[in-house]
Sequence to fold (323 residues):
Amino acid sequence: MGGARFVQGILRHIERTGAATEVTVVANTGDDIWLHGLKVCPDLDTVMYTLGGGIDPERGWGRTDESWRALEELKAYGVEPTWFGLGDRDLATHLVRTQMIEAGYPLSQVTEALCVRWLAPVLGERVRLLPMSDDRVETHVVIDDPDDGARRAVHFQEYWIRHQASVPAHAVVPIGADAAAPAPGVVEAITDADLVVLPPSNPVVSIGTILAVPGVRDALVGTDAPVVGISGIIGADHVRGMARQLLGAIGVDVSADGVALHYGARTSGGILDGWLVDTSDDAVVETVTAAGIACAAVPLLMTDHDATADMVTAALGLVGTRR
Fold:
């Protein structure tokens, strides 16, 4: 949800400036899951629905005016999992996607086809949505099962939805990422960009999973475009989600500067030229700057599209565009 809302802020910034700017969104597919024979891509769908005007604004995921009759019937049959909310309208997207994949189309082409409905009527060709990879990658989280205490790896969706990130995470494993390849257009989008922005998404299971795909990190290190990130940690906690729990699992300090240092400066082999922190974290600006990353403290709560557009303006002011 955070990444999709941030893209709305980018579009508001473009609207303000009147620039003829194209935006490419590279979405995490490590959260993807096969359920009831259907390929479900939560991050791709959230971006599509949000930008296309079909998202449920209260939940921040799924469709507006949703009903749950199919899920209720599955529960009546005792078919698991029953903890994942598949809405009736949302099912149509998963059915179309699955049919196309089974017909031999890669996920990138399927996504392009779905965006003909969701993005093209609203945004034309101004926004392109790409999955990080056409290959199957699934993020699993190692936990102590609350039912029997056994340590096991569960799909990220089970950790997040069924367990609500309430059980300690011992490790995060993006299964298949090391053998995956970037989807067509991903590396080129990074290489040819005027500016690359890492939104305030989860640094472990969103951005971290994308970076785990071979070739993506190298593209970020090698691009001529400045790379600036937005902290999703304000104070000593995430704004929403489960970043705090998962940063602890990979040994990263839960702080705005901790995440910046985890990404690292491009001058030292990392991926960042710039990093925005919230005004409440202005004390860490000096630490981040000393690590070779330009840093500024600005308001980072995405209260509306204009507030988010202000973050984009600040990011541009911090690092500019293609050097």
Notes: The chain has three domains: 31-131, 138-175, 179-319.
